[in-house]
Amino acid sequence: ANMRLFLRADVIHAHDVLFWYFPLRILLFWKPVYTTFHGDEKRFPPTSKAILMRKISATLAQGSINVGSYLEKWYGVKADITIWGGVKKPDMLVQKLSHSPLHILLLGRLEKDISIQKYVEILATLKNRKCSFKLDVCGDGSATEELIQYGKMHGFVENVDPFIARSHIVFCSSYLAILEALSYSKRVVAFYENEMKKDYLSLSPFAKWICITDSVEKAVSYCLETGAKPYSALESLDIKRYRERISWNDLSKKYIHLWSK
């Protein structure tokens, strides 16, 4: 139905689903084809089918991009470029927050794959230890009812910037959410459930600036000891330079560079 679009295109670029293009890849053999692999850290370990499809896609594509270094290790696909996402420059001043109460933002799908039960356990532990905190939850999912007792539920919101700006610490475990939190110089707690998710987080260039753990107790200690304090490390020259390199404009240049090879 969309054959004319493919015929007119100078470049074909697929995100994770290049196998849908396989029949046209044969018919339009002269068209440059590229792909971006996002992976699926919700399934562990990766299925042999998922690994095979990525290897075939990488073979049929002129070039590829991995979203995260963990993909090469777990899917066996070496890409031309590795990215972790991008952020826009914060368009509002970060609010000056008082040290108490601790303001927490939980960001993302409220499901097992982001270790939602561990985030619930953190909140329960903080409450039991009489730690004063406020909670905003931007997301939705099966754990919604469990979280209502701890704070305000906002569902999926179009713009999370105001919520990030007024938080001390952000609970999240996806690249884009982490990058958005770091762009506002916020502390981050990111849980992992298995070794692949651990690599997803720990093999990132920003791993040294966030709390990566599978231990609720360690995360609780991190919140109690450092949560509401200014995070001077996030104002270091290293992270300022890194933030300057991860705009969406910089990301688009990487795609254009790949296509122009």
Please tell me about this protein's structure.
The chain has 261 residues and is α/β, with parallel strands linked by helices. The protein is built from twelve helices and ten strands. The strands form two sheets. It has a six-stranded parallel beta sheet with strand order 7-6-5-8-9-10, with helices on both faces. A four-stranded parallel beta sheet has the order 1-2-3-4, sandwiched between helices. The longest helix has 13 residues, at 48-60.
Overall form: elongated
The helix content, as a percent range, equals 25-40%
Which series of helices and strands comes N to C? HEHEHEHEEHEHEHEHEHEHHH
Number of helices: 12
Sequence of strands across the biggest β-sheet: 7-6-5-8-9-10
**How would you describe the oligomerization state of the chains in this entry?**
single chain
Write down the overall mean pLDDT: 89
Structural class: alpha/beta
Defining traits:
261 residues; alpha/beta; 6-stranded parallel sheet; 4-stranded parallel sheet; 10 strands; 16% strand
Q: What's the quick description here?
A:
The chain is α/β, with parallel strands linked by helices. The protein is built from twelve helices and ten strands.
Write the layout of secondary structure elements.
Blueprint: H1 3-8, E1 12-15, H2 22-27, E2 33-37, H3 48-60, E3 63-67, H4 70-75, E4 81-83, E5 102-107, H5 116-128, E6 133-138, H6 144-147, E7 152-153, H7 161-165, E8 169-171, H8 175-183, E9 187-191, H9 195-202, E10 211-213, H10 216-226, H11 237-244, H12 248-259
Parallel strand pairs: 1-2, 2-3, 3-4, 5-6, 5-8, 6-7, 8-9, 9-10
